[in-house]
Amino acid sequence: MAPTSSRQPRQLSLVLTLFLLCFNALFGQVAAHEDEAILNSEIARLNNQSLLWGPYRPNLYFGVRPRIPKSLMTGLMWGKVETYTDYQTSLRYTCEQNEGMKGYGWDEYDTRRGGVQSIHDTENGIDITTSFVKVPGGANGGSWAARVKGQLQEDVSKDRKTAVILYVTQEGLGTLEAVKGEDENGYEGDVTLNGNSAALGDYKLVLTKGKGKHPKSDHKVTEVRGDAHTVVQSLNYQEEFLWQAKGIVFKQLKESVDAFVEKYFDKEDPPPAWQVFQLENRPGVGNAQIIQRVFEGDFEFDILFSSASAGKELSSADLTREIQEATESFGERFSSIFEIKAPFNADKYKKFGRSMFSNLIGGIGYFFGESVVDRSYAPEYEEEDEGFWEEAAAARARNKPTLEGPYELFSSIPSRPFFPRGFLWDEGFHLLPIADWDIDLAMEIVKSWYNLMDEDGWIAREQILGAEARSKVPEEFQTQYPHYANPPTLFFIIDEFVTRLSKANGSMPVVKEHLSQGVPLASASIDNIEVGLEYLRRIYPLLRRQFYWFKKTQYGDIKSYDREAYSSREAYRWRGRTVPHCLTSGLDDYPRPQPPHPGELHVDLMSWVGMMAKSLSNIAKVIAPEEVEDYTKVLDGIEHNLDDLHWSEKDGCYCDATIDEFEEHQLVCHKGYISLFPFLTGLLKPDSPKLGKILALIGDEEGLWSPYGIRSLSKKDENYGSAENYWRSPIWININYLVITQLYNVATQEGAYQETARDLYQRLRKNVVEAIYNSWEETGFAWEQYNPETGKGQRTQHFTGWTSLVVKIMAMDDLPEPVAVPAAAAPAVESEEYVKDEL
C-alpha cells in the first residue's frame, strides 16, 4: 500500500499542473481575444470620431455636416450687391458649371484633419478662402471650426459690397436657437447659436465678428433700418424643404424687400442696393437660421462649432493654430506618400498634384435619403428576345417605380458641379489614390457601398439619395433597376487591401501600450493584422454575393448557339443595352454590335468577372480556403474563353461578339478601349503571344495613340468622333491609368515585350500628365475627358474624380533607360520585332 499512497500525491500534482497549464493557456487566449475586441472597438470609435465632421456637402462651395442622418448642416452663400439685380444673378451656393469661376477647390485637404480651399469668383470680383479644421475630443465627435476670408480681386473697386450668408439647419429631434443681440436691428459682434440633438448632444455655434468694414449710408431710411449690421432670421420649415436654401433665402428676401419698398422706397431718392436687400432681424428658435452680413472690401470671420462634451469652447486662436498644424502635416504627408518622380520634379507639378489629390479627397460626401427603384421584375427585363430593348423600354414606361430607403452613403464623387453623388464604377478609381493616403478611409467608403447591397447581391450603379440629389438628375435617369450591373471597380481596393495586409509585419501590438500611444487611424487595419482580417471576414460574404449576382444576372448564352468554347458557362452580357448605348458598362456610347441581340457577348464584362474571381480567390485563401477552387475554376474558364469567344486573329485584338443572320457566332471589332480589357484587368499573361499585338494596338499612331493619351476609339473606326462622341474618340484618364499601370508591369518584368512596354509606358505617362496639367494651368479645372486632337479638357469641368489618378501616375517610376532582355528570353525576339513593325 505504501507505494500506492506515494503515487497519489505525484498523480494529483501532475493533474493539478496540467490543469493549471490548460487554465493559463485558455485564460491567455481569452485575454488575447478580449484585447482584440477592445482594440477593434477603440479603433472603430476613434475612426468614427475623426471622420464624423467634414465638408460632406460637396455639391456646395462650402457646406459642413456630420455623417449622421437628420442632423446639423451649414452652407455658405455670397454675392455682390452693387445693383438691385445682383442678388438674383450673383449669389453663390451650389457648385455650378460656367458660373464665372476661374477655378475653385481644395489646395490641401486631409479628411481627418481639414484643409484650405480657394475659390476664384471672377464674376463677383472676389477670391474666397475657406479653411476648415477638426478638433477631436468628447463623446459626441468633437468640435470643428472654419475661417472664411474674402479678398477683392485687383481690377475691382475697393468699395465693392459683398453679402455673405451662413445658412444653418437642424433636422430631426433637437433644438436650434439664435441668442438675441443687444440691438434690435442686428448684431455688432459675434452671433451665437445654441443647439442640441440626440446624436450631437449640446453644442454651440459661433459666427465671430471677425475683420472687415461694413458699409455706411446717410440715406434717410438708415434711421429705420440702421447701418449694415449682422442680421439673423430664425425660421421653421418642414424638413423636406430645408435643403432648398437658395429658395428659402430668396423667399425671405422678397418678403423683406416688399415690406420695405411699400413703406420706405422713394424712386426719386432710392437707397443703396445693400440696404434694400437686407433681411429683417428676427432671431429666435427655428430649424433654419439665416445669418446675413454685408461687407465693403475685404473681410474675414470664423465659424466655431463647440461640442459641450469636449469640455472646452473653441476660440479663433485655436483655429489659427489648428490651420497651421494641418497645413504642415499635409505638406509632410503628401511629399512622403506621393513622391513625384521625374520628369515632373518642378514645383509646379507638386502644386498641381496637391491640388488634384486634395480635390479628390475633399469631394467626399455623406448622403442620406430615399432612392427611386423599379422592382417590378417585368419579364421584358430578362432581355431574352430579339428586339428586347424596345420591349424593355415599353415596360419601363408602363411600370411605376417606388421610393426605397432611406439609405446612407459615404462616397467620393466625380464632379462637384455636375455629378455630386455616388457612382459605383467611378468609386473604385477614386479610392486608388485615397487608399495610398488613408487605407482605412478607403475601406470605410467600400463598407458604406456594400451596406447598400440588397439580399440578391445588387448595388445600384448610381446613388441618387434624397430630394436634393434628385434635383440634379433628369427624371428619366433617376430610376435604378435591380438587373442593371456596373463595373465592380471596388475590387481594385479590396485587392490593394489584401496585398498590403499580406505584407504587414508581426502580430497585434499590446493593446494598452497601443492605445496609450494613439492609434494611427490611416492604417490601423493594416498595422493590426487581426483588425484587417476581421474586416475581411465581415465583407467577404458580401463580395461573394455580388460575384454570384453577376454570374446569375449577366450571363451570356453559349449553349443555345452551339458556340465552341473551353467552358460552357463563362460568357457574359451587359443587361440594359439599347441601340445607341450600353450605359451599364460605363462606356455609354462606345460602339457595340448592331442591332443588339440576346446572343451578344461583351469582352469587357467577362474581364471584370475574371478580375472579381481572381480577387476573391486571394481573399478566400485567408478567409475561406475551401472555396478557393470555386474561383480558380471560374478564372480558368474565363481566361480560356476570352480567347475562344473574343479573340480575333484577323484584327489582332479582343472583340465583342454577336449572332449573325445564320445564327452563327460572329466577332464585331471596334478597336479601342474594349479591345484592351483583358490586358487592363491583368488577365493577359506576360508570356502570351497576344500581348505583342495588344501593345501594337496601343502604340498605333493612326489608331489609338495620340500625343495626349490613348483614344477611346481608333481613328480608323467608322464611328470615330460620331454622334454623341462621348466614348468614341476622347481620352479618358481612368482607362489611360490602367494602360500605364499594365505597361509598367510588363516593362519591369523579364520578357519578350519588356522594352516595347517600357518605351510605351515612358511616352504615355509623360503625354497624359502634360495634357492634364496644361489644361489645369490654363482653365483652373480638371476635366472629364481630353480632346485627342488638341489635348484640351472638355465636357464636365471640375472633374476631380478619376482624373485625379494623375497624382498616382506622377508618382510612378521613371524608366528612361532600356531594360536589357535576358538571354533566356531571346527565342521570343520575333514577337518583339512584330510589335516594332506594327508600331
TrEMBL record:
Cell compartment(s), UniProt: Endoplasmic reticulum membrane
Glycosyl hydrolase family 63 C-terminal domain segment(s): 316-812
Alphabetical list of Pfam families matching this protein: Glyco_hydro_63 (PF03200), Glyco_hydro_63N (PF16923)
Q: Which Gene3D superfamilies match?
A: 1.50.10.10, Glycosyl hydrolase family 63, N-terminal domain
Q: Which residues form the signal peptide?
A: 1-32
Q: Might you report a single GO cellular component term?
A: endoplasmic reticulum membrane
| EC number(s) reported in the record | 3.2.1.106
Q: Which reaction does it catalyse?
A: N(4)-(alpha-D-Glc-(1->2)-alpha-D-Glc-(1->3)-alpha-D-Glc-(1->3)-alpha-D-Man-(1->2)-alpha-D-Man-(1->2)-alpha-D-Man-(1->3)-[alpha-D-Man-(1->2)-alpha-D-Man-(1->3)-[alpha-D-Man-(1->2)-alpha-D-Man-(1->6)]-alpha-D-Man-(1->6)]-beta-D-Man-(1->4)-beta-D-GlcNAc-(1->4)-beta-D-GlcNAc)-L-asparaginyl-[protein] + H2O = N(4)-(alpha-D-Glc-(1->3)-alpha-D-Glc-(1->3)-alpha-D-Man-(1->2)-alpha-D-Man-(1->2)-alpha-D-Man-(1->3)-[alpha-D-Man-(1->2)-alpha-D-Man-(1->3)-[alpha-D-Man-(1->2)-alpha-D-Man-(1->6)]-alpha-D-Man-(1->6)]-beta-D-Man-(1->4)-beta-D-GlcNAc-(1->4)-beta-D-GlcNAc)-L-asparaginyl-[protein] + beta-D-glucose
Q: Which residues form the Glycosyl hydrolase family 63 N-terminal domain?
A: 50-276
A GO BP entry is: oligosaccharide metabolic process
Superkingdom, taxonomy of origin: Eukaryota
InterPro entries to which the protein is assigned, alphabetical: 6-hairpin_glycosidase_sf, 6hp_glycosidase-like_sf, Glyco_hydro_63_C, Glyco_hydro_63N, Glyco_hydro_63N_sf, Glycoside_hydrolase_63
The alphabetical list of record keywords is: Endoplasmic reticulum, Glycoprotein, Glycosidase, Hydrolase, Membrane, Signal, Signal-anchor, Transmembrane, Transmembrane helix
Which pathway is this protein assigned to?
A: Glycan metabolism; N-glycan degradation
Question: What's a Gene Ontology MF term here?
Answer: Glc3Man9GlcNAc2 oligosaccharide glucosidase activity
Q: What function is annotated for this protein?
A: Cleaves the distal alpha 1,2-linked glucose residue from the Glc(3)Man(9)GlcNAc(2) oligosaccharide precursor.
Record's family?
Belongs to the glycosyl hydrolase 63 family.
Name it.
Mannosyl-oligosaccharide glucosidase
UniProt lineage:
Eukaryota, Fungi, Dikarya, Ascomycota, Pezizomycotina
